[in-house]
Write a structure and sequence with these properties.
- The structure is a single chain.
- The protein is mostly beta strands.
- Helix content is about 0%, strand content about 45%.
- Strand 11 and strand 12 form a beta hairpin.
- It starts with 6 loop residues before the first strand and ends in an 8-residue tail after the last strand.
Length: about 230
Protein backbone atom coordinates (compact mmCIF):
# COMPACT_ATOMS: atom_id res chain seq x y z
CA UNK A 1 0.00 0.00 0.00
CA UNK A 2 1.10 3.53 -0.74
CA UNK A 3 0.11 6.65 1.23
CA UNK A 4 -3.07 8.07 -0.24
CA UNK A 5 -6.45 9.54 0.72
CA UNK A 6 -7.60 5.92 1.09
CA UNK A 7 -4.62 4.41 2.96
CA UNK A 8 -2.65 5.30 6.08
CA UNK A 9 0.89 4.03 5.56
CA UNK A 10 4.17 3.98 7.45
CA UNK A 11 7.33 2.94 5.61
CA UNK A 12 10.65 3.47 7.33
CA UNK A 13 13.88 2.47 5.59
CA UNK A 14 15.98 3.72 8.51
CA UNK A 15 18.26 5.64 6.19
CA UNK A 16 18.86 8.14 9.02
CA UNK A 17 18.30 6.03 12.14
CA UNK A 18 15.26 6.44 14.35
CA UNK A 19 13.02 9.18 12.96
CA UNK A 20 12.51 11.86 15.60
CA UNK A 21 9.00 11.75 16.99
CA UNK A 22 8.15 8.40 15.37
CA UNK A 23 9.88 5.68 17.40
CA UNK A 24 10.65 5.04 21.05
CA UNK A 25 13.62 2.86 21.99
CA UNK A 26 13.47 1.06 25.34
CA UNK A 27 16.26 -0.97 26.92
CA UNK A 28 16.73 -3.48 29.65
CA UNK A 29 18.75 -2.73 32.75
CA UNK A 30 22.06 -4.20 31.55
CA UNK A 31 24.61 -1.61 30.52
CA UNK A 32 25.53 -3.51 27.35
CA UNK A 33 22.17 -2.80 25.74
CA UNK A 34 22.67 -0.20 23.04
CA UNK A 35 20.36 2.49 21.71
CA UNK A 36 18.92 1.51 18.34
CA UNK A 37 21.24 3.04 15.78
CA UNK A 38 21.80 3.19 12.05
CA UNK A 39 24.22 0.46 10.99
CA UNK A 40 27.46 1.79 9.53
CA UNK A 41 27.82 0.42 6.03
CA UNK A 42 24.15 -0.63 5.95
CA UNK A 43 23.51 0.26 2.34
CA UNK A 44 19.95 1.49 1.82
CA UNK A 45 19.39 2.02 5.54
CA UNK A 46 19.57 -0.62 8.30
CA UNK A 47 18.67 -0.18 11.97
CA UNK A 48 20.56 -2.33 14.50
CA UNK A 49 19.23 -3.30 17.93
CA UNK A 50 21.87 -4.65 20.35
CA UNK A 51 20.90 -6.69 23.40
CA UNK A 52 22.49 -6.72 26.83
CA UNK A 53 24.83 -9.48 27.92
CA UNK A 54 23.83 -10.06 31.53
CA UNK A 55 22.39 -13.45 30.66
CA UNK A 56 19.66 -13.08 33.27
CA UNK A 57 16.64 -12.71 30.98
CA UNK A 58 14.36 -10.20 29.32
CA UNK A 59 14.33 -7.51 32.02
CA UNK A 60 18.08 -7.01 31.70
CA UNK A 61 18.89 -7.76 28.09
CA UNK A 62 15.94 -6.63 25.93
CA UNK A 63 16.25 -3.90 23.33
CA UNK A 64 12.98 -2.85 21.66
CA UNK A 65 11.38 -0.14 19.59
CA UNK A 66 7.73 0.81 19.28
CA UNK A 67 6.02 3.75 17.67
CA UNK A 68 5.39 6.63 20.03
CA UNK A 69 1.60 6.33 19.72
CA UNK A 70 -1.18 3.81 19.21
CA UNK A 71 -2.37 4.51 15.67
CA UNK A 72 -3.36 1.23 13.98
CA UNK A 73 -6.64 -0.67 14.20
CA UNK A 74 -7.72 -3.87 12.46
CA UNK A 75 -11.35 -2.72 12.29
CA UNK A 76 -10.40 -0.07 9.71
CA UNK A 77 -9.59 -2.87 7.26
CA UNK A 78 -6.48 -3.75 5.31
CA UNK A 79 -4.17 -3.73 8.34
CA UNK A 80 -0.76 -5.19 7.51
CA UNK A 81 2.71 -5.30 9.06
CA UNK A 82 5.87 -6.26 7.22
CA UNK A 83 9.55 -6.16 8.10
CA UNK A 84 12.84 -7.67 6.94
CA UNK A 85 15.14 -8.68 9.78
CA UNK A 86 18.41 -10.51 10.42
CA UNK A 87 19.33 -12.07 13.78
CA UNK A 88 23.03 -12.46 14.51
CA UNK A 89 22.35 -15.53 16.69
CA UNK A 90 19.54 -18.06 17.09
CA UNK A 91 20.45 -19.67 20.41
CA UNK A 92 19.36 -18.68 23.95
CA UNK A 93 17.42 -15.69 22.66
CA UNK A 94 13.98 -14.15 22.26
CA UNK A 95 12.50 -11.82 19.61
CA UNK A 96 9.08 -10.43 18.68
CA UNK A 97 7.87 -8.56 15.57
CA UNK A 98 4.30 -7.32 15.03
CA UNK A 99 1.69 -5.29 16.88
CA UNK A 100 1.01 -4.69 20.56
CA UNK A 101 -1.28 -2.44 22.62
CA UNK A 102 1.38 -0.72 24.74
CA UNK A 103 3.69 2.10 23.75
CA UNK A 104 7.16 1.46 25.15
CA UNK A 105 7.11 3.48 28.37
CA UNK A 106 8.50 0.27 29.87
CA UNK A 107 9.54 -3.12 28.56
CA UNK A 108 6.79 -5.65 27.95
CA UNK A 109 7.37 -8.87 26.04
CA UNK A 110 4.01 -9.40 24.31
CA UNK A 111 4.55 -13.19 24.29
CA UNK A 112 6.93 -15.79 25.61
CA UNK A 113 6.87 -19.56 25.28
CA UNK A 114 8.25 -22.29 27.52
CA UNK A 115 8.21 -25.80 26.13
CA UNK A 116 4.85 -25.80 24.38
CA UNK A 117 3.13 -23.27 26.65
CA UNK A 118 2.55 -19.71 25.42
CA UNK A 119 2.27 -16.80 27.85
CA UNK A 120 0.68 -13.53 26.76
CA UNK A 121 1.85 -10.50 28.73
CA UNK A 122 -0.05 -8.07 26.50
CA UNK A 123 -3.85 -7.84 26.54
CA UNK A 124 -3.96 -7.47 22.75
CA UNK A 125 -1.04 -8.32 20.48
CA UNK A 126 -0.30 -10.25 17.33
CA UNK A 127 3.01 -11.15 15.74
CA UNK A 128 5.94 -13.45 15.14
CA UNK A 129 7.66 -14.84 18.24
CA UNK A 130 11.05 -16.49 18.39
CA UNK A 131 11.82 -17.89 21.84
CA UNK A 132 14.40 -20.60 22.33
CA UNK A 133 12.61 -21.60 25.52
CA UNK A 134 10.25 -23.47 23.20
CA UNK A 135 10.59 -27.19 22.60
CA UNK A 136 11.16 -26.51 18.88
CA UNK A 137 13.21 -23.45 17.93
CA UNK A 138 11.14 -22.23 15.01
CA UNK A 139 9.22 -18.99 14.51
CA UNK A 140 5.84 -18.97 16.28
CA UNK A 141 2.66 -17.16 15.20
CA UNK A 142 0.86 -15.56 18.12
CA UNK A 143 -2.25 -13.58 18.96
CA UNK A 144 -4.10 -12.54 22.10
CA UNK A 145 -7.58 -10.99 22.07
CA UNK A 146 -8.59 -9.18 25.27
CA UNK A 147 -6.31 -11.51 27.30
CA UNK A 148 -7.66 -14.63 25.53
CA UNK A 149 -4.91 -16.37 23.57
CA UNK A 150 -5.55 -17.53 20.03
CA UNK A 151 -4.56 -21.03 18.93
CA UNK A 152 -0.91 -19.98 18.82
CA UNK A 153 1.25 -22.30 16.78
CA UNK A 154 4.59 -23.06 15.16
CA UNK A 155 5.20 -21.75 11.66
CA UNK A 156 7.49 -24.62 10.76
CA UNK A 157 10.07 -22.08 9.57
CA UNK A 158 13.26 -21.31 11.48
CA UNK A 159 15.47 -18.25 11.42
CA UNK A 160 18.94 -18.77 9.99
CA UNK A 161 21.64 -16.85 11.86
CA UNK A 162 22.98 -13.84 9.94
CA UNK A 163 20.45 -14.24 7.11
CA UNK A 164 17.50 -11.96 6.41
CA UNK A 165 13.90 -13.12 6.72
CA UNK A 166 10.82 -11.18 5.60
CA UNK A 167 7.87 -11.35 8.01
CA UNK A 168 4.34 -10.22 7.10
CA UNK A 169 0.99 -10.19 8.94
CA UNK A 170 -2.36 -9.33 7.35
CA UNK A 171 -5.43 -8.76 9.53
CA UNK A 172 -9.07 -8.54 8.49
CA UNK A 173 -11.75 -6.35 10.06
CA UNK A 174 -12.65 -9.08 12.56
CA UNK A 175 -9.09 -9.37 13.88
CA UNK A 176 -8.25 -12.67 12.17
CA UNK A 177 -4.62 -12.91 11.06
CA UNK A 178 -2.73 -14.44 8.13
CA UNK A 179 1.05 -14.88 8.51
CA UNK A 180 3.72 -15.02 5.79
CA UNK A 181 7.48 -15.68 5.92
CA UNK A 182 9.60 -14.91 2.88
CA UNK A 183 6.44 -14.56 0.82
CA UNK A 184 5.00 -17.96 1.78
CA UNK A 185 1.84 -18.44 3.83
CA UNK A 186 2.72 -20.12 7.15
CA UNK A 187 -0.44 -19.90 9.25
CA UNK A 188 -3.81 -18.42 10.17
CA UNK A 189 -5.12 -17.43 13.59
CA UNK A 190 -8.82 -16.77 14.13
CA UNK A 191 -9.60 -14.07 16.70
CA UNK A 192 -5.97 -13.09 16.90
CA UNK A 193 -6.72 -9.65 18.32
CA UNK A 194 -9.59 -7.34 19.30
CA UNK A 195 -10.37 -5.55 16.05
CA UNK A 196 -11.18 -2.20 17.69
CA UNK A 197 -8.04 -2.05 19.87
CA UNK A 198 -5.52 0.68 19.12
CA UNK A 199 -2.10 -0.78 18.31
CA UNK A 200 1.54 0.14 17.78
CA UNK A 201 4.22 -1.65 15.76
CA UNK A 202 6.87 -3.37 17.89
CA UNK A 203 10.25 -4.95 17.14
CA UNK A 204 12.27 -6.40 20.01
CA UNK A 205 15.12 -8.78 20.77
CA UNK A 206 16.86 -10.18 23.86
CA UNK A 207 19.38 -12.73 24.98
CA UNK A 208 18.16 -15.13 27.67
CA UNK A 209 20.53 -17.24 29.75
CA UNK A 210 23.93 -16.63 28.18
CA UNK A 211 26.14 -13.65 28.98
CA UNK A 212 26.72 -12.56 25.38
CA UNK A 213 25.16 -9.77 23.33
CA UNK A 214 23.46 -10.29 19.98
CA UNK A 215 21.93 -8.01 17.37
CA UNK A 216 18.93 -7.80 15.09
CA UNK A 217 19.29 -5.76 11.91
CA UNK A 218 16.04 -4.24 10.62
CA UNK A 219 16.16 -3.40 6.93
CA UNK A 220 12.75 -1.72 6.88
CA UNK A 221 9.32 -1.73 8.47
CA UNK A 222 6.04 -1.23 6.58
CA UNK A 223 2.62 -0.80 8.23
CA UNK A 224 -0.61 0.04 6.39
CA UNK A 225 -4.37 0.14 6.87
CA UNK A 226 -7.43 1.55 5.16
CA UNK A 227 -8.40 5.09 6.09
CA UNK A 228 -11.86 5.42 7.63
CA UNK A 229 -14.34 7.45 5.62
CA UNK A 230 -14.33 10.27 8.19
CA UNK A 231 -10.55 10.21 8.63
CA UNK A 232 -10.76 8.71 12.11
CA UNK A 233 -10.85 5.22 13.49
CA UNK A 234 -13.88 3.05 12.81
Amino acid sequence: SLPSPNHVVLFDDFESGLATGRWLATEGTDSATSDAAILAGGIGGVLRLTTGDAGTGLAADTEQITQNQLMWQASNGGLAFQTRVKLSAITTCWAFFGFTDTVAAALEAPFTVSGGTFTANADNAVGFLFDTGATVDDIKICGVKATVKAANASSGVAFVAAEYATLRIELDTSGNAHFFINGLFVGYLADAITAATDLTAIMAVSKLSVAASMTVDIDYVHVAMNRAADGGAV
